[in-house]
Amino acid sequence: MLISLNWLKKCVKIPVSDEELIRLIGARLVEVEGVVDESHKYDGIKIVRVETAEKIEGTHLTLCMVNDGSAELTQVLCGAPNVHEGMLAAWIAPGATVPASVHEDAPFVIGTRKMLGKYDSHGMLAAPDELDLGDLHDGIAEIDPEMAKPGDKFADIFELDDKILEIENKSLTHRPDTFGLIGFAREVAGILGQKFEEPEVKAELETTGDIKIEVDENVCGRYTAVVLEKHGEIKKKYLSLQDTYLAKAGMRPIDPIVDATNYLMLLTGQPLHAFDYDKFVAVGGAKEPKIIVRLAKNGEKLTLLDGKDVELNENDIVITSNNVPVALAGAMGGASTMIDENTKNIILESATFSLYNLRKTQMAHGIFSEAITRFTKGQPAYQTLAVAGECAEMLKDGFKVAGVSDCYPKPEKTPAVEIATSEINNLLGTDYSNDLIKKTLTNVSFEVSGDANLKVVAPAWRTDIHIKEDITEEVGRLLGYDNIAPVLPKHGTATPSKLFKLKSFSRQTLKEFGANEVLTYSFVSERLLENAGLDTKNSYKIVNSISPELQLVRQSLIPSLLDKAHMNQKIPFDKFALFEMNKIYRKDWGMDEEDVPTEKMNIALVLAERKTTGDAYYKAKLFVEKYLAKLNIEATFKPLKTKTAEALPFEPKRSAEVWVGDRYLGVVGEFKTVVKRNFKLADYLAGFELDLLAILELESPKLVAKDFEIKDKQDLTVTSTKTYAEVLAEVKEKYPEAEISPVGIYQPEGKEEKNITFHLEFR
Predict the structure, then answer these.
(1) pLDDT tens per residue across span 210-223
(2) Of 176, 219, 522, 550, which has the maximum CB count within 10 A?
(3) Residue 364 near residue 376 (C-beta atoms within 8 A)
(4) Taking residues 52-57, what's their average pLDDT?
(5) What SS3 state is found at 758?
(6) Which residues contact 620 (CB under 8 A, 6 or more apart)?
(7) In what helix (H) or strand (E) does residue 277 lie, and over which residues does it extend?
(8) Which helix (H) or strand (E) covers residue 658, if one does?
(9) pTM, two decimal places
């Protein structure tokens, strides 16, 4: 989105520099991707009056003498058919650059040329496209004599000494109101601490219900239709300020009707569309127009304004004339009802549509127009009638209102949010007064009542305001997060849970034994579970899985570890052990007291060696014994009889159940031959899977103790002029229980002080 600073300044007073304004917009509203400075784009271009215009016989050229406000006239040859005596035009003087070429690799600088071998032409009279103000090249731009006089700077008259802000649309996805200049200006006023003066609508329309409208309210929140009847001519003779602001926003002037709808869209954020009334009625085959807004049917076809034929799908919303599609709603009108030079009457559409459907339409048909960009942000319905009235006012010289219908099935209501000033300050970490908070919100048209306890009602266009946190965010953003003092919260450090400590202890212990920790997806494929010999019917299935490989919730950690073991042996690594701690779920465990699937926390390990023979069972059993011994737990190993999920991958005759007293912890042993084959792993393969929650419930001295022996790590940076050895000695004296290692030394050029960073590990 492109925002003209000149246009913005017409809506709000800017007491700061352009640079500071751009910084504030970036900090408190939206990312500014770039700034195009056009302050010198129109240097050397003046308004001139054509004093004489003589056709050169046998050519298309006209010999003109132009008055640029100086004492002498200047000779210019012009090939435009509309040049005539007495007109005002834009003259690009010798030495100036043609504006349309400013950003090209080789800008076109105008000079004095000898034409037809005998006429000197000093500079040129410019067409709209050469001025970068449209695509028209069928004549030079004519300027209203009431706007300017000879010698005036073209940039001054048309407000072209400007800066254009390139706004990053995605960061305003939840703020459709800011996709119009008025909404953007309102936010800027709020940022600057000013109360925004809402612009008045010139013409209020009264609904007459002359047009029959039916809408699917699931995809169309409101549909306003205004019939405009032709009673005169709108002749676009002069270049206008409207043309320049359209061009600055990246849109090209086309004709008075389309230009009016586009201009109001840029101003208010509300897209409009104009249908040829008579064509609309004819397509529907009725005497009067009947507008039906509905979802398209698969296979329906429509020819768009750009001549492209599209095949519609069930996600598209269509505007129909008596149920015959004539437009792709929110995206582009149809060729069958387009306005042209013969148009006598108009149906003006101002509506809102489902942003979710339009996003699908946008991607399915590759339409990225200015209108659909705004609709896909969720344009609110509050202003459809008012903007249609404003458009009718703009076109009143050629059209009069002949009928107004407004279909609004479910009017939107803005909820009231009650919040205390103390709640806002506590969440932001500020000390804002009640008056400042109220002023900040009312500046951007919120209704605020109450003192310490506020009742806040957002304006109709703020469809993103629902809860207390929304109000708090609004206050913090408008007053500037950068103005909030960064103070550490006043609270103690949370005490780690016993499970957290056990996991930290387990991680450290198995790493000391030479194993490597991995973290794998909790969602797995049916194939993976089947390869491990597990029953897939005991796994919960994901309804909307993101991939065919991630359809089931795993019921054991072993299959994932075997899959990673295969990847590591393939690299190849000949000897390794992998372990993981994570949650698992099984259908046969049923639901918990909150009626959600019961979950358990397991720890599992797989060891694999390619060039080793013998019984892998004993090495896996040693891992279990040593691990439990570190917790002062003595285990008993019994013949494998259980048929639970963790036992299914193991070979019963070469595996065992792990017990502590009468408490079952899990399984340790070698894997079945078919499992090894399915995962393409070497024969020397074993592992275990234990229930961490069951271990946690054991009354061992280690678990009852206040803390496990866990390493704590942190980095420390010291700024000093001393040598590294001197600083190291001081750190060792300060932290005698820590293992200290150097991380880095940084000394800025020309500075005596250096930053020395150490890594400390506490036991």
Answers:
(1) 899 999 999 999 99
(2) 176
(3) no
(4) 94
(5) strand
(6) 605, 607, 668, 669, 670, 686, 687, 688
(7) helix 277-284
(8) strand 650-660
(9) 0.69
